[in-house]
Structures are given as structure tokens and as C-alpha cells.
Specification:
Blueprint: H1 4-12, H2 24-41, H3 44-47, E1 51-57, E2 66-67, E3 73-79, E4 84-86, E5 88-89, H4 95-98, E6 113-117, E7 120-124, E8 129-135, H5 157-175, H6 178-219, H7 226-239, H8 254-258, H9 264-277, H10 288-300, H11 304-429
Parallel strand pairs: 5-6
Antiparallel strand pairs: 1-8, 2-7, 3-4, 3-8, 6-7
Helix pairs in contact: 1-5, 2-5, 5-11, 6-11, 7-11, 9-11, 10-11
């Protein structure tokens, strides 16, 4: 005869071993529980086939010693010295009266009683040899193929019961499928990481936008922008060097530095000095050329007094010439100062343009760096999403298999349940 394990496997299509659902240990428990339930469902006459006879010596009330195994007592007898007298059951609370010979309910050798108290059985009168039939629930192992003290015609109900419980166990295990749970945990992890990736990418893009907005303040061609203002400043300063520019318009056509405001004053002063030298001094007595000639003549004539007077006149003229030269030098200094100021202004604006262009270049690199980092996060997010999708497909595939298996087990469990209940009804009718 096939083992109970083999019978259960045949009924359920399960493969049972030490690590399956159920395990062989669990199957043993299902078989044992099944035997107990079938016995409990039996009519009394069939339970006699499952009972064993035990003996004990009755004792006085309060010294009960015979411990029951199941609590299902089919019959109790006490030997009166000649025959086995059947014992009638009394409530445990009447045990005192039954032991009192003067009480109307006192037990006698020909009318013995028994009671169960605190999990122990006892008979009265005391000191009698007693026997009792007790229904014991057998232990049934997965490797067994039969059960002792059990009606053969209903033994099949035990593996049917165990099959029902095994299918319930297997269906329950489907809900905690390790592969599915692992895939779901991975999906959850990847989606969580993806959310972090997207958040990080958004942060980087926000930083790039901020840098780009700042760049716009430097490069915008609209009036008042930083680089535009500096460039306009350069153009304005440069225009001042040109004839058609604003004051002082240092360079341009000849009129600007001959007759205009530029070098005109220098030219005028020098012209005056030259005229003094050429004898155009306002006082005719201070003709420098004539005085110098007279000095030479007077010195030749050894007229030192007159020569000294001429020298004095020449020195006066030279002083006037020097004054005009000083005026010219002052105007030249003003010219150089104006040129220097405009040059500094141009250089300042040029330096600002260069500086702001450098800032723009640095910020442009920063924007590119932020965007590159954001793209890295987005690429990682895409990779995580792809992996999550792959695992989702795996979960769907596994769930499809599990659903098919679960549906089969559910139908088979229902069929076996119906067969089991039918068998119990037949057994009870017997």
C-alpha cells in the first residue's frame, strides 16, 4: 500500500519534501489531526474499533491516580470478585456521596460508579480492579501506510483530510512567494531611487537656470545690461578722441588742435613766444633780435653800460618768451591729462567688459556642468525605470503562473472537501 505521503501527492499534485509547502513534518501533523477529526466524527459503535483497554485500581476519593489520554471513555468495569460489573458514570461532584456507604447514592460492588476529575478517572467502591476503554487519537506519520485501531473502510478519509490541509498550506505560501516578493522589493527600491534621481536632476536644472538667468544680466543686449553698458562706455570715450565726438574731442581734423579747443592754446602760446623772439614784442624796445645785435655791438665798442642795458632788455624779452612757453607747457599738461583720463576710462570699461566676459565664461561652464550632472541623474533614472519594468514583467509572469496554480489548487481543495464531507456522512450513517 502506498504511503500517506504518496497518497496526498497523488491527490494534490504537490511534491512534498523537507522544505516544501507543506513540509513532511507539517504533513505528519495534518495526518494526525485528520485521524483525530475522523474519530471524533464516528458514531459510538465505530469508536470501539479505535479504543484501547487500560486497567487501574480504584482509590479513595481525593487520591485519584489514573490519568486519561483523550477523555473519550466508552465503558468502565469493576471486578466484584466474580464478574466485571459495568460502572455507571456520575458527575465528579457526587463522588463524596458515592463513597459514603450511608448515603442513598453510595456505590456498591454490584453497582459501581466512575467519574472523571481533574483529568483522572476513578471508580467506586475503592480498591477494586477496574478496566476502561479509552479512544486514543493515533499519531500518523507521513511515511505510514496504515493506522492501527482504525476501521479500514474509513482510513482513506485521513489522507483526504491531509490533502485538503496541504492544499491550503500551499495556497497560503503563494501569497508569500519569495521570488515575487524579491522582485517587488527590487521594483520598490528602483522606483524610490528613480524618484531621488529625478529630484536631484531637477535641483541641478534649477541651478543651471539660475546661472543662465545671471548670464542674461551680463549679456542681454537691452539697454542698461552690464556688458552693453561697459561697451557703450568704451565707444563714448573713444568718440571723445574724434573730431565729431563730444568735448574735448582731442583728435580729428586740423581745426580741432589748431583752431579748436584741443592744442590751439598750446599753438597760440608758442606763436606768441616766437613773435617775441622775432621782434614782435608789444614794446619795440624789447626786440630780442635787435637787442642781441646791440649787445654784440656795445660789447665790441666796450660800452658796457649800454651793453648791460641791452642785456637787461633781452632778458625781459626772454622772460616773456619763457612765460608763453610755460603757458604752452601747461596746456600740453592739460592735453596729456585729458588723454590719460580718456585712456583710463577706455581701459576701465575694457577691463570691465573682459572681467564680465570671464564671469560669463565661468558661469557658462557652470551651466554646462549642472546640465551634465542632471543628464547623469536622468540616465540613471532611466536605467532604474528599465530595470523596474523588467522586474514588473517578471512579476507579472510569475503571478500568471501562481494564479493558474492557485486556481487548480482551489478547485482541487473544494473537490476533496466535498469528498471528505461525503465520506463523513456515510460513516455517520453507518
Amino acid at each position: 500500500m502506498a504511503t500517506f505521503e504518496a497518497q496526498v501527492e497523488a491527490l494534490t499534485s504537490l511534491s512534498i519534501d523537507g522544505s516544501s509547502s507543506p513540509t513532511q513534518t507539517e504533513l505528519t501533523q495534518f495526518l494526525t489531526d485528520g485521524a483525530a477529526e475522523v474519530i471524533n466524527s464516528m458514531p459510538r459503535k465505530l469508536k470501539f474499533l479505535c479504543a484501547t483497554e487500560d486497567t487501574f485500581t480504584s482509590t479513595a476519593v481525593g487520591s485519584e491516580s489514573e490519568t486519561l489520554e483523550s477523555g473519550q471513555i466508552l465503558q468502565v468495569t469493576r471486578n466484584d470478585g466474580t464478574i466485571e460489573q459495568p460502572c455507571r458514570e456520575i458527575p465528579a461532584m457526587l463522588r463524596g456521596r458515592a463513597s459514603d456507604s450511608d448515603d442513598m447514592a453510595a456505590a456498591t460492588a454490584t453497582d459501581p460508579v466512575y467519574y472523571v476529575y481533574n483529568g483522572k478517572i476513578n471508580s467506586l467502591p475503592a480498591s477494586g480492579n477496574c478496566k476502561y476503554l479509552e479512544v486514543n487519537n493515533p499519531a500518523v506519520a507521513f511515511g505510514d501506510s496504515s493506522v492501527n485501531n482504525f476501521p479500514d473502510e474509513y482510513e482513506y478519509l485521513i489522507p483526504v483530510y491531509a490533502s485538503i490541509k496541504s492544499l491550503q498550506n500551499a495556497m497560503a505560501s503563494k501569497a508569500g512567494n519569495t521570488d515575487v516578493n524579491s522582485a517587488l522589493n527590487l521594483i520598490t527600491s528602483k522606483l524610490s531611487t528613480t524618484a531621488t534621481n529625478i529630484s536631484n536632476a531637477a535641483t541641478e536644472i534649477g541651478l543651471a537656470k539660475a546661472e543662465a538667468a545671471e548670464i542674461a544680466t551680463y549679456t542681454d543686449t537691452a539697454s542698461g545690461s552690464n556688458i552693453e553698458t561697459a561697451a557703450d562706455g568704451i565707444a563714448t570715450a573713444v568718440a571723445k578722441f574724434q573730431a565729431d565726438g563730444g568735448d574735448p574731442a582731442l583728435f580729428g581734423d586740423e581745426t580741432q588742435y589748431k583752431t579748436g579747443d584741443g592744442l590751439k592754446r598750446v599753438n597760440t602760446a608758442l606763436d606768441v613766444a616766437i613773435s617775441y623772439i622775432n621782434g614782435n614784442h608789444p614794446s619795440g624796445d624789447y626786440d630780442l633780435a635787435a637787442n642781441l645785435s646791440d649787445i654784440d655791438t656795445e660789447l665790441t665798442n666796450e660800452d658796457t653800460e649800454l651793453g648791460g642795458a641791452r642785456i637787461q632788455q633781452a632778458q625781459t624779452t626772454l622772460s616773456a618768451v619763457q612765460a608763453q612757453i610755460n603757458i604752452a607747457q601747461a596746456h600740453i599738461a592739460d592735453w596729456n591729462a585729458a588723454v590719460g583720463a580718456l585712456s583710463s576710462e577706455i581701459q576701465g570699461f575694457a577691463t570691465e567688459v573682459s572681467s564680465r566676459n570671464n564671469v560669463v565664461g565661468a558661469k557658462t561652464q557652470a551651466v554646462q556642468s549642472f546640465i551634465s550632472t542632471a543628464n547623469t541623474y536622468l540616465a540613471e533614472a532611466q536605467s532604474n525605470i528599465s530595470l523596474a519594468n523588467a522586474k514588473a514583467g517578471e512579476v507579472q509572469s510569475r503571478l500568471s503562473v501562481i494564479t493558474t496554480e492557485y486556481a487548480f489548487m482551489e478547485k482541487q481543495q473544494a473537490k476533496l472537501q466535498a469528498d471528505y464531507e461525503k465520506g463523513i456522512q456515510i460513516m455517520r450513517g453507518a
